[in-house]
Amino acid sequence: MEEFPLSLKYQDCVRAQYQLVMSLLKTRVLDLVIGFSMGGQCAYYWTLMHPEVVRDTVIICSSARTSRHNYQFLEGPKAALEFSADYNQSSRKTTSLKPTGGLRAFGKAYSAWLTSPQWFEDELYKTIGYGTLSEWDKVAAGTNYDDWDPDDLLAMIDQYFRWEASKKESLMIPQAKFKVIPSAWGHLSGLGYDKKDESYIDEAISKFLSGCTSGWKRNGQ
């Protein structure tokens, strides 16, 4: 995207989302804001910036604050893209050529962090159609990023969020209920790649919405 900013704040995202949702839906109350990963962090900001609008939130594979370890991890794939031979920041607004090498270097640096060591050892990539790790690598760390705009990608980088950090945060939030997704899929567990993970998340959200005593309690109840 031409002249896309290299840095965005969550407040910027929520302001844009608020304007879009309110103008289209013509509503003043949102029963539920649900978000995964960076979308989950946006959900936190929704509750802070518009508490009069948001009744409840469901946050999946996310955290209220990006950890120092997360920031440092992201410097790896970020540097792989920015220092690639075919990425030229000074000409990013004037050229239509994409830095394919840089995008694939980004994917390679990021790929091992998507899931977990157990995921690789159990060869779970076979459950989504890849016969070998090499076949998965060619897509996940290769062609998967070919269609991305490099500067858009740099503004969207994120890593999995450690459940321990989320548990600690939940203790500081009134009426919060914390649940760990029992999965080897790491950050991808929140994307529905694995049917068991998908069912677990759907059931938890269903209990929350129904106000079931064994699930999450809704605010004010």
How would a textbook summarize the main sheet? 2 strands, parallel
Percentage of β-strand residues:
under 5%
Query: What is the helical fraction, as a range of percent?
Result: 40-55%
In N-to-C order, the SSE pattern is HEHEHHHHHHH
Strand order of the largest sheet: 1-2
Alpha carbon gap, first and last residue: 45 Å
Number of helices: 9
Low confidence ranges: 212-221
- Structural class estimated from helices and strands: mainly alpha
Number of strands: 2
The structural domain count equals 2
Notes on the protein architecture:
- The chain is mainly alpha-helical.
- Strands 1-2 form a two-stranded parallel ribbon.
- α1 crosses α2.
- The longest helix has 16 residues.
- It is globular, with a radius of gyration of 19 Å.
- The relative contact order is 0.13.
- The C terminus is likely disordered.
- GO terms for molecular function: acyltransferase activity, transferring groups other than amino-acyl groups.
Helices and strands, with pairings:
Layout: H1 10-25, E1 33-36, H2 38-49, E2 57-60, H3 68-82, H4 100-111, H5 117-121, H6 133-140, H7 150-154, H8 163-170, H9 195-210
Parallel strand pairs: 1-2
Helix pairs in contact: 1-2, 3-4
Protein name: AB hydrolase-1 domain-containing protein
GO molecular function: acyltransferase activity, transferring groups other than amino-acyl groups
Organism: Fusarium sarcochroum
